[in-house]
Design goal:
Layout: E1 4-18, E2 25-39, E3 43-47, H1 54-61, E4 69-74, E5 77-78, H2 84-87, E6 94-97, H3 111-121, H4 128-141, H5 158-170, E7 176-180, H6 188-205, E8 208-212, H7 216-222, E9 225-230, E10 233-239, H8 240-245, H9 250-257, H10 264-269, H11 275-278, E11 287-290, E12 293-295
Parallel strand pairs: 3-8, 3-9, 6-7, 7-8
Antiparallel strand pairs: 1-2, 1-4, 4-5, 9-10, 10-12, 11-12
Helix pairs in contact: 3-4, 3-5, 5-6
Length: 304
């Protein structure tokens, strides 16, 4: 892997909540002791079932919802623990592409204004003509016509709206982009177009990408490495092809077993992982079982 752009060290995000009928408080360990590194031009896929902590981790890494413990570094600079005013000049280097392209765009703003907003906040342009030219260039990069700048989000399809969100995300040439289920709400054919667009943009701008998804087929296509998350912890981390060819953790195998195969004969021969195996909580420490392939211990944690 190249020099890390993002380094997460023992990142935790805990929430307090009521744990019983009588309102006894308890701590919800949404993200617990997560270590991650992502290099420039690298895409790390983050997969797991709903509720495993993927989106919470993404928000914690960007300091949108700061972590409870642990440290996050961006390009060698620690960003966890900084105040909002200290984070402001660093925000340009880390951006997010949201799951719902409709709700993530202000319906009262034109597309041109939406894309220009981060440029204006960062004071990139003082000349209006130069700003309009940059907006047109960004629209061209995401393969939308220049005329889109005068229109509003409701006038576009879901895939086109996501392209607008991508244009906004790359406007300031960030070092890190977190794509949180960025294609899950789109049709399959449109998903492929957006994935290919992201890959093309990454080759051009060299940003690091954390791609959060539950669709393993999509993640395999775009990710260089894949981290598998279960109950707030990373249980397996490996190069994409190796993870699919030789999954070592029972939860990873359960996820792969759940992917439908369009062949009834193959489906009939497949063995499914059982529920009790995948509901165990595993230790956070990962062991390297092959070069670049890390797995949590296969024995569950002892009960306290």
């Amino acid at each position: 892997m190249s020099t890390p752009v993002l380094v997460a060290d023992a990142v935790c995000k805990y929430f307090s909540g009521s744990g019983s009928l009588f309102g006894a408080s308890r701590v919800i360990e949404a993200v617990d002791q997560v270590d991650l590194q992502i290099g420039a031009s690298e895409t790390l896929g983050l997969v797991g079932e709903s509720g495993s902590g993927k989106s919470t981790l993404g928000r914690a890494l960007l300091q949108l919802d700061p972590p409870t413990a642990g440290t996050v570094s961006l390009d060698g600079q620690t960003i966890s623990g900084l105040s909002n005013s200290e984070l402001r000049p660093l925000r340009r280097h880390m951006q997010m592409i949201f799951q719902d392209p409709q709700s993530s765009l202000n319906p009262r703003m034109s597309v041109g204004s939406i894309i220009a907003e981060p440029l204006q906040i960062a004071r990139e342009f003082t000349d209006r003509r130069a700003l309009r030219k940059r907006v047109q260039d960004l629209l061209d990069l995401v393969r939308l016509p220049a005329s889109a700048a005068q229109r509003y989000p409701y006038e576009f399809s879901g895939g086109q709206r996501q392209r607008i969100g991508i244009a906004r995300a790359i406007a300031l040439n960030p070092k890190l982009i977190i794509a949180d289920e960025a294609v899950s709400s789109l049709d399959v054919s449109i998903q492929a177009q957006i994935i290919n667009l992201l890959m093309d943009l990454q080759r051009e701008f060299k940003f690091a990408c954390l791609f959060i998804a539950h669709d393993l087929a999509v993640v395999r296509h775009i990710a260089d490495r894949i981290a598998v998350m279960f109950l707030g912890r990373i249980v397996e981390l490996a190069p994409s092809d190796r993870l699919f060819e030789n999954p070592r953790h029972p939860y990873t195998r359960a996820l792969l077993d759940a992917v439908p195969i369009p062949d009834p004969e193959v489906e009939a021969k497949r063995t499914r992982s059982t529920g009790p195996i995948i509901r165990r909580r595993y230790p956070a420490t990962l062991t390297e079982v092959a070069p670049g392939h890390f797995v949590a211990p296969l024995e569950p944690e002892p009960k306290p």
